[in-house]
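Researcher: Predict the fold of Small ribosomal subunit protein bS6.
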Amino acid sequence: MNAVNLYEMMLIENSALSESEEKKLDKKIEDFLKDKGKIVKKSLFGKRELAYPIKKETKGNYWIYNLELDPGAVSQFSQKLKMEESVLRFLLLKSQTVLEKAKGKTVKKVKKD
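Model: Structure tokens for Small ribosomal subunit protein bS6 follow.
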């Protein structure tokens, strides 16, 4: 693994998945990232009603991932997620602010008089 960038991903999975199916999806993501990156942080945003049906589903589980990923592997990773039946939608963005937070730096707010 050469140079890596930090990415933030929001993933919406089918809310009808069983716990074992969720673990299978997690395992697939971790297996792909084994050589090309790693999961820095993963958090459940919650089960939410979708604004409109996606793949005939009206609810989804929202997950937020902070990832370290080789830039050359981003398109492969996106293709793999698109092929997953249990993934309704995802958005993967390059993130600089997450990197600063991970290093313990805080952004100072400027006070307005």
